[in-house]
Prior knowledge:
Elements: E1 3-7, E2 12-18, E3 24-31, H1 33-36, H2 44-66, E4 75-81, H3 85-102, E5 106-110, H4 111-123, E6 131-136, E7 141-148, E8 151-157, H5 163-173, H6 180-187, H7 214-224, H8 238-267, E9 271-275, H9 282-295, E10 298-300, H10 317-321, H11 339-346
Bound molecules: 5'-O-[(R)-(carboxyoxy)(hydroxy)phosphoryl]adenosine and zinc ion.
Amino acid sequence: MPLLAIETTCDETAAAVVTRAREVLSSVVASQDDLHARWRGVVPEVASRAHVERIIPVIDEALSRAGISKASLEAVAVAVRPGLVGSLLVGLSAAKGIAAALGLPIVGYDHIAAHLYACRLAYGESMHYPCVGLVASGGHTSLFHVRSPLELERLGGTIDDAVGEAFDKAASLLGLGYPGGPQIQLAAVGGNPRAYRLPRPLANDRERLDFSFSGLKTALRYLVRPPGAAENTPAPVGQQRADLAASFQQAAIDSILAKVEIALVRTGCRALAIGGGVSANALLRESIQRLGRERGVAVFIPPLSLCTDNAAMGAIAWERLERGEDDGLELDILPGTDRKKHTSKTFGK
Ligand code: KG4
Ligand code: ZN
């Protein structure tokens, strides 16, 4: 019998039904992008209110698309960290309500570990452990030594902005829409990635596996609007915009690749997995594939539908349920250390 997974860490309301064999019977994601677009970032209060309105219809839709009733469920899984407090609480409350009403086990899972588990869903048993795991999203940019689905040792991460947050801000500077990642990728087509010299902060520091993206963002800002220029300077258009987008994208991806390479050497891992919204980026996907070929390392990249936030990756809960674990109705949210990064994204820093 399948489990119902629920995901409301940030601004996507999602539910999925996944069997013990890790077959995804349904995966429903209600995006809130339209609600947050005018703020060019997630507004926590708006996000949690929207989750309250959508969570039950999204769960019903996931059950209906899977062709099952609640009575056929074996367990409930819910993302409990990291994330926005108000958003996490909505998913947790719904999950607890269903588990209590049906007398089902309930298991909380880590959203970051789940992003990497998307690779296990896509590749099945051929997914290798141990591996280096890169999670690159709007709220996180971290590298892990992944010994098994539930054992992640953090090797490093961003010391300021997440890379997805930098993409979102760059898109805003270039007069593009939200979320910015896909828009930058599109605008970069036909652009020259070497047209502008942009910084790759920390990329040459072989000691630390940390990232920094705020300097890159600021450098782009000064290219678009030099110091002293009027606040209402129009955003670049045409070839100039394409060149700026391509140069920004290249710098962001180069910064990531440099650290992934060091992490592979340091851990000696022969496998590399990626996850999170930015892993949908075509340049990152190509660059990671090339790196894997050059180093003879197996590469695991989720399909696009499993890159951005979704509940199918909540299948990671099976790893605990199979051990007989059950968090029970005592389960609580653990917003985690990354919560601040999620909220700072809000105000388009
Ligand atoms: O994993 P996700 O859906 O939510 C968080 O946990 O943050 O990631 C969303 C982020 C956004 O910042 C978005 O701009 C970025 O992923 N993103 C991309 C692409 N698609 C989504 N960034 C670069 N290129 C893309 N194609
Ligand atoms: Zn995410």
